[in-house]
Amino acid sequence: MHHIQGQARNQFQLVCLEQMVAPDSFVRVIDVFVDAIDLKSFGFSHAVVQEEGRPPYNPAVLLKLYIYGYKFGVRSSRKLEYQAATNLEVRWLLNEQTPSNRTISAFRKTNAMAFRKVFRKFVFMLRQADLIGGETIAIDSFKVRGQNSLKNNFNEKKIKRHLVYIDARIDEFANALDQADQQEEKEELKGKISLQKQRREKYEKLQKDLNDSGQEQISTTDPDAKAVILHRGVVNVGYTIQASVDAKHKLIAETETGDVNDTRALAPVAIATKETLKVEGFNVLADKGYHTGDQLSRCEVENIVTFVSPKEPASNDVDIFPISRFVYQPETNTYLCPANETLATNGTWYAHSSRGQKAAFRFQRYNTPKCKGCTLRTQCTKGKDNGRSIDRSEFAAVIDANNQRVNANPDYYKLRQQLAEHPWGTMKRQWGFDHVLVKGKERVMGEVSLVFTAYNLTRVLAVVGGIEGFKALLNKFSGYFQQISALFRAFKYVLKGFRPEINLQTELRSVV
User: Fold this and answer.
1) Confidence band for 490, pLDDT divided at 50, 70 and 90
2) Cβ atoms < 10 Å from Cβ of 280
3) Do residues 332 and 432 make contact, with C-beta atoms less than 8 angstroms apart?
């Protein structure tokens, strides 16, 4: 018996790339998707070629390559160059074009904003196709490592620690210089002192830059990257990527990056999602990291109903009455304590603030002089001089309403984890998107938009039933856009008469 035999390597065969790519291959979806995009309207470089000079690669070719790379975890420009030369599917996708790694890398750096526009336009199209419901949105974040090492990230404490160490070294070398006898040894010590002084100037400048920025930390390689906790206390320098996921088919609706934590992220992401989807409002689900009074209040103003997990009270002393035992009475703006005494406020607003920022929120303080002779005093407070005081935030009403919604709908709130954790697990564990390859917030968000576009394409393909369903979806929207273009052309001359400077096609693309 013989083993299974293969074909001889020098055997001549009459085949083409089209035959070698499966009909349901994902590259065919990428090809159809990118060919349906008007790259010029999104601002891609070299979308319009000049008459002189060497012609550039069509940006569609490089966009296809990048979407393929982010989908299959191949993001390095050199690895993408290799794929373009050796991978049959990529050779089919690029029509046998083999751009260099420098061309591939430059395309990612110069088209960050265009990537974001493509992602948002795709989301808008999915919304119009009713694949994104726009009724329940989950917001969550994940951390990615940036192109900045931890040793090149500084906060005030770290800078002071370096300055103290440098001063100690200078004193050490200065004392040794006083005791040195040989000229050669003295010159060596003077050089060491000079080097330490130069290092001190470096850290003094970092201290000044940190103070001028008003931030709590500063990075020298990528100024936009911040020290973030990746998991289980592991700290690295990178970005906190915020994103919203629609409940209907777990499609990503919007993305942004901001501070190192989620405290101030809820309202910006929710409002941006509302603008992208063009809806009047929706329900938003988020974990307790987003539970901040001013963020909940901003969402309420925007007709966004929050279901954010409540935070535990600040006091965790189990030996005294919890704050839940103090009942707020809105009619009189007072609290009723466990001893049935009334805690009132003098009407003064106090403020909590953080370093370099305006007051985070205001609050009023409620207390009563009857605490001194109360028989329940030892169960109510550990203070010897003053009685129990209750601080009520200016956002207390909206916080209470949010907490009541979450407690009354526990099953509905559980959807949050199912929606938000699904995409991050796919992209980080399966696609290897746990670090970024570019520097600066704008370029990082361009890279995030690429991987999110690849994710949404993958999800849509599963929802619409394969590539034929996806083609039908694009054809539907192609006809929709053609109808609108025809409508605009009908009024072209009338409108141009009023505003001759208007480019109607540009205006149309900005609206649709």
Assistant:
1) low
2) 10
3) no
DSSP 428: I
CATH 3.30.420.10 fits 126-146+227-311+410-448, yes or no: yes
Closest to 453 (Cα-Cα) out of 58, 111, 78, 57? 111
Measured between alpha carbons, how far apart are the two ends of the chain, in Å?
66
Write out pLDDT tens, residues 332-380: 888 988 888 888 888 888 887 655 455 467 888 888 888 887 888 888 8
How far are the Cα atoms of 42, 257, 436 from residue 440, in angstroms, in the given order? 21, 11, 10
| pLDDT given for residue 338 in this prediction | 87
501 vs 512: CA distance, rounded Å: 20
Closest CA to 453 of 26, 23, 18, 133: 26
CA distances, 143 to each of 259, 312, 355, 441 (Å): 11, 24, 24, 14
Residue of 47, 43, 52, 84 whose CA lies nearest to 66: 84
Residue 162: both structure tokens together: 């370096």
Element (H, E) at 142: strand 136-145
**341 contacts: CB under 8 Å, gap ≥ 6:** 368, 370, 371, 374
Q: What token pair was written down for 136? A: 């329940």
Instruction: Specify the 3-state DSSP secondary structure of 34.
Output: helix
Is 281 in contact with 302 (CB distance < 8 Å)?
Answer: yes
pLDDT tens sequence across 114-140 = 999 999 999 998 998 899 999 999 999
Using CA atoms, how far apart are residues 476 and 481, in angstroms rounded to an integer?
Answer: 9
Single-letter amino acid code for the residue at 166: I
Residue corresponding to tokens 């070698």: 20
Nearest to 108 by CA among 156, 167, 62: 62
The residue extents of the domains of the chain are: 23-114+453-487, 126-146+227-311+410-448, 150-219, 323-387
Average pLDDT over all residues of the chain: 86
**Which distant-in-sequence residues (6+ apart) come within 8 Å of 139 by Cβ?**
242, 243, 244, 245, 265, 266, 269, 270, 273, 284, 285, 286, 290, 420
Cα 507 from Cα 484, distance rounded (Å) = 12
Distance CA 62, CA 214 (A): 40
Token representation of residue 489: 């052309």
pLDDT tens, position by position, 384-399: 667 888 888 888 889 9
Token reading at 446? 């361009």
Strand 252-257 relative to strand 234-246, pairing:
antiparallel
Contacts of residue 474, defined as CB under 8 A and 6 or more positions apart, other chains included, come to 32, 33, 36
pLDDT in tens, 53-97: 778 899 999 999 999 999 999 999 999 999 999 999 999 999 999
Helices 396-408 & 293-301 angle (0-180, nearest 10): 80
Bridge-based pairing state of the strands 359-367 and 334-336: unpaired
How many helices (H) and strands (E) in the chain? 19, 14
